[in-house]
Design a protein that fits this description.
The complex is a heterodimer.
Chain A (H helix, E strand, L loop, with lengths): L3 H28 L11 H13 L8 H17 L1 H12 L10 H29 L14 H25 L2 H6 L6 H4 L8 H22 L7 H11 L12 H11 L29 H9 L5 H5 L1 H4 L6 H21 L11 H4 L3 H5 L6 H5 L6 H14 L6 H13 L17
Chain B lengths: L9 H6 L6 E4 L1 H6 L1 H16 L4 E2 L10 H5 L3 H17 L4 E4 L2 H10 L8 E4 H10 L14 E4 L13 H9 L3 E2 L30 H10 L5 E4 L2 H14 L5 E4 H8 L3
Parallel strand pairs in B: 1-2, 1-3, 3-4, 5-6, 5-7, 7-8
Bound molecules: iron/sulfur cluster (2 copies).
C-alpha cells in the first residue's frame, strides 16, 4: 500500500510525457507536410543566431519593458524547472526533498527559485494587465479576438497558479521551513497557514504543481505558447541571407533557360521528366516550405510585426501576425483532417488562400521587411505573402489591373512605364 | 535644349578598348521619371568631377525585374534578369553602382544565382568610398547648418543593412542631421515598395507616404533626404500635401552636386 503514491506518480508522469511525445510527433508530421528545402549557409552562424536571438533574447529587449519582463519569465521558467527534477525523483522513490542533503547550497538554490517565482508572478501580472486593463493596441487587433485572447490569458493563469503552488508547497513544508534557509519568500507566507493541516496542504500543492506542469506541457501543442520550444529551432533555421533577398524559383529558372536558349528544342521532354512542377507559388499549406510551417508554429502572436507594418498602421486589412496565425490554423485544420481520415488528407475544398488569407491582404504589402525585422524569433511573414502573390499571378493571372499593365510594360518596353527602351538614354540630352 | 552631359555607353568605350571602372546602372526611374532623372544627372556630374571612369548600358539596359518579382511574376522577373545578365556578362562588367535601392538589391542578391555575379554598390556607398579615397571632396555650400532628416529606403536599410553611408555623406555637408523617431531599422516604408508604386492602395484610413511625411516633418527639417527615386516621389507627394514650399525632398547625390555647384 505504501507504494501506491509512487505508482500513481509514475503513471501520471508516463502519461504526461507520453502525450507530449505524441504531440511532438504530430508537430513533426505536420511540418513535414511542407516542401523540403535545402538549408543553406554555415551551421556555425546558425548556432550563433540561435544563441543570440533565442537563448540571448537579443531582439526581445528592443522593446525594453516587455523585453525585461519576458527575460524574467524566461529565466524563471528555465531555472525553476531544475526543481522539477527533484519533484520527479521524490515522486518516484517516495523521498522528500532528496537534494536537501547537499547542504547549504540547497538553501541557496531554493531561495533563488523562490525569488524568481515571485518575480515571474509579478511579471505575468503585468502581462495580464497589459492585455486586459491597459489593452495595448497590438493585443486588440481583430485577429486577437476569441481563442487567441483566451489562449494568452490561460497561459498567464497557468503561470500564476504554478508559481503560487510552488510557494505554497514550500510555505507549508514544516521540515523545509525549519531548515531556515532558502525560504526567503515562503517564510513570509508560512504564518498565513498557521493552524491549518499543513501536511495535507503541502501534499496537495505538491501534486497539483507537478500535474499542472504536465498539463501545461501538453497544452503547448494547442497554443501559441509552443514558442518556448520552437524559438530555438526557428532561430537556427532563420535565413542567413540579407532580408532583401527573395528566392529565385528554380523550376522557373529551368523554363526560362529553355526559352532563352536557341539550341534547345522547346518541345523536347526534359530528361528527368518531373522538372515542371504542378504549381507555381503557394495556395495552401502543402505548398509552403517546412521552415515557413515551423515559423507558423513558432509565432507567439506578440504582434510586434503588425505594429511595425506600414500597411496595418494606415488601416489596411493586412496584418503579418494574422498571416502567421492563418497559416497555423489552416495547418491544424489539415492535421485534424489527416487524423480523422486515418493518416490521409481528404480534400475539404478549402485552402490557405481565400479561405483564410484574402487577396486584399496580400496586395497591401509593400515588402518593406519591417515585420521580419521586428519579429523576436526570426519569423518571416513576408515570404508567405509573396509566395501567395506568386500563385495569384502565375497560376490565376489575378493581379490587380494596374499591376498587369506594369508587367505588360516591362515585357514590351523593359520598363514598368510605357516608354520605349530605345529612349532610355534620352535623359542626358534634356 | 541644354548641352548634353557626357555619358559614355559601355559599348562605345569597349569599341575604344576602354573598360570602365564601374557600370552606372541607371534604372527605369532614373531613366524615365522626371524627378529621378535629376538624381541621375547629379550623380553623373559628381562622377565626372571625381574623374571616375564609368559607363552606362544605355538602350541595352532593361528593367531589373524587381517590380515584377515583388508582384509575384517570377517568370517575367527571370526573363528580365537573364537578359540583363547576358548583356552585362558580355561586357565583362565587374562593378556596378546604382542610385536605386531596388535595382541594387535585386542585382546584388538575386542575380548571382542566375549567373550574374558583380560587386554592386549603392551610390551613397560609392560616393563615400570616393570621399575616403580622396577623389571626392564634399562642401557644405548652401546646406551648411541646414536641418536635414534622412528617410531610410527599405531596400537599402532593412533589406541590406546599409544605414550609415548616406548619413556620413549628409554630415559632410556640415548639415545638422536630425533623426526621425522611426529611423534606421525601425524606419517606416514610404509606401512604394513591393510594386505598390504602380497600383492604388488597398482601402485604409491613410496613405503610407502621408504617415511617413508627417513623421519626417516632426523633426522640423529644412530638407528631407532620400536615397531612392521611389521614396523621393512618395515623400515629394507627401510634402506637397503637407508643407508645400517649406520643405524640400532631395537625394543625397543632388545635395552633394548642388553644394559643389556642379
Ligand atoms: S513586409 Fe509587408 S507585411 Fe511585412 S511589415 Fe512590410 S508591408 Fe507589412
Ligand atoms: S510573427 Fe513574430 S513578431 Fe509577429 S506575432 Fe508572430 S512572433 Fe510576434
Amino acid at each position: 500500500m505504501t507504494f501506491l503514491p509512487n505508482i500513481i506518480f509514475g503513471l501520471i508522469l508516463v502519461a504526461g510525457i507520453g502525450f507530449f511525445v505524441r504531440n511532438i510527433q504530430r508537430l513533426r508530421r505536420n511540418i513535414k507536410l511542407g516542401v523540403d528545402i535545402p538549408i543553406e549557409g554555415p551551421s556555425k552562424q546558425r548556432w550563433a543566431n540561435m544563441a543570440r536571438i533565442a537563448l540571448g533574447q537579443s531582439k526581445m529587449v528592443r522593446r525594453p519593458i516587455s523585453g525585461l519582463l519576458h527575460i524574467i519569465v524566461y529565466l524563471g521558467f528555465i531555472i525553476i524547472n531544475i526543481e522539477v527534477l527533484e519533484i520527479v525523483i521524490d515522486g518516484l522513490f517516495g523521498t522528500h526533498r532528496i537534494f536537501s542533503s547537499i547542504g547549504s547550497i540547497y538553501g541557496i538554490l531554493i531561495g533563488t527559485f523562490e525569488i524568481l517565482a515571485l518575480l515571474v508572478f509579478i511579471s505575468v501580472i503585468f502581462f495580464w494587465t497589459r492585455r486586459n486593463v491597459i489593452r495595448l493596441k497590438r493585443f486588440m487587433s481583430p485577429e486577437m479576438k476569441g481563442w487567441p485572447k483566451q489562449d494568452a490569458n490561460l497561459i498567464i493563469y497557468f503561470e500564476i497558479i504554478l508559481m503560487g503552488l510552488f510557494i505554497t508547497m514550500n510555505a507549508t513544508d514544516v521540515q523545509f521551513q525549519a531548515m531556515g534557509s532558502g525560504n526567503v519568500i515562503s517564510g513570509f507566507i508560512a504564518p498565513l497557514f498557521e493552524g491549518l493541516p499543513l501536511h495535507a496542504i503541502e501534499r496537495t500543492a505538491w501534486w497539483l504543481h507537478i500535474i499542472g506542469i504536465l498539463i501545461f506541457l501538453n497544452y503547448l501543442y494547442y497554443s501559441k505558447h509552443l514558442h518556448i520550444l520552437l524559438a530555438f529551432p526557428n532561430t537556427y533555421f532563420g535565413s542567413l541571407k540579407p532580408n532583401g533577398h527573395l528566392n529565385n524559383i528554380e523550376s522557373v529558372t529551368n523554363e526560362v533557360k529553355l526559352m532563352m536558349d536557341p539550341d534547345t528544342d522547346p518541345y523536347a521532354v526534359s530528361e528527368d521528366g518531373a522538372e515542371v512542377p504542378e504549381k507555381f507559388g503557394v495556395s495552401d499549406v502543402f505548398d509552403l516550405n517546412r521552415i515557413q510551417l515551423l515559423n507558423a508554429y513558432t509565432c507567439t502572436e506578440c504582434g510586434r510585426c503588425t505594429s511595425e507594418c506600414p500597411a496595418n498602421q494606415t488601416g489596411k486589412k493586412l496584418s503579418p501576425r494574422k498571416i502567421m496565425m492563418d497559416t497555423r490554423d489552416r495547418l491544424q485544420e489539415v492535421a485534424k483532417n489527416i487524423e480523422t481520415n486515418k493518416g490521409k488528407f481528404i480534400s475539404d475544398g478549402k485552402q490557405l488562400l481565400g479561405n483564410y488569407v484574402s487577396n486584399e491582404e496580400i496586395w497591401a504589402c509593400t515588402s518593406c521587411n519591417a515585420c521580419v525585422e521586428a519579429c523576436p524569433v526570426s519569423i518571416n511573414p513576408l515570404s508567405i505573402i509573396l509566395d501567395l502573390r506568386r500563385y495569384l499571378v502565375m497560376e490565376q493571372s489575378a493581379a490587380p489591373v494596374e499591376l498587369n499593365n506594369m508587367m505588360t510594360n516591362i515585357e514590351n518596353n523593359g520598363a514598368p512605364w510605357p516608354y520605349n527602351q530605345m529612349d532610355r538614354l534620352n535623359w542626358n540630352k534634356e | 535644349m541644354k548641352e548634353a552631359l557626357k555619358v559614355p555607353t559601355i559599348a562605345e568605350l569597349q569599341a575604344q578598348g576602354i573598360s570602365p571602372e564601374v557600370l552606372f546602372w541607371v534604372g527605369c526611374a532614373g531613366s524615365f521619371d522626371d524627378r529621378a532623372k535629376k538624381i541621375t544627372k547629379a550623380l553623373v556630374k559628381i562622377m565626372h568631377s571625381a574623374k571616375v571612369s564609368f559607363a552606362v548600358l544605355g538602350t541595352e539596359e532593361s528593367c531589373t525585374g524587381d517590380p515584377a518579382k515583388r508582384a509575384g511574376n517570377e517568370f517575367l522577373f527571370q526573363m528580365q534578369a537573364v537578359t540583363n545578365i547576358e548583356v552585362m556578362n558580355l561586357y565583362k562588367v565587374k562593378k556596378i553602382v546604382t542610385a536605386c535601392p531596388h535595382c541594387f538589391n535585386t542585382i546584388k542578391n538575386e542575380y548571382p544565382s542566375l549567373g550574374g555575379r558583380y560587386e554592386v554598390v549603392h551610390h551613397t556607398q560609392f560616393l563615400k568610398s570616393l570621399l575616403e579615397d580622396g577623389r571626392l571632396t564634399i562642401e557644405g555650400g548652401q546646406f551648411r547648418g541646414k536641418r536635414i532628416t534622412f528617410h531610410d529606403p527599405c531596400y537599402l536599410g532593412r533589406a541590406n543593412n546599409i544605414y550609415e553611408a548616406p548619413r556620413e555623406l549628409i554630415k559632410k555637408l556640415d548639415a545638422q542631421l536630425v533623426e526621425m523617431k522611426k529611423s534606421r531599422r525601425n524606419g517606416l516604408c514610404c509606401g512604394a515598395g513591393g510594386a505598390q508604386m504602380f497600383k492604388d492602395a488597398e482601402p485604409g484610413n491613410k496613405d503610407i507616404n502621408i504617415e511617413r511625411t508627417e513623421q519626417a516633418l516632426e523633426t522640423k527639417p529644412d530638407i528631407i533626404a532620400a536615397g531612392c527615386p521611389f521614396c523621393n516621389t512618395m515623400m515629394t507627394d507627401g510634402v506637397k500635401n503637407k508643407a508645400e514650399g517649406q520643405v524640400k525632398v532631395k537625394d543625397v547625390a543632388e545635395m552633394i552636386a548642388e553644394a559643389k555647384d556642379l
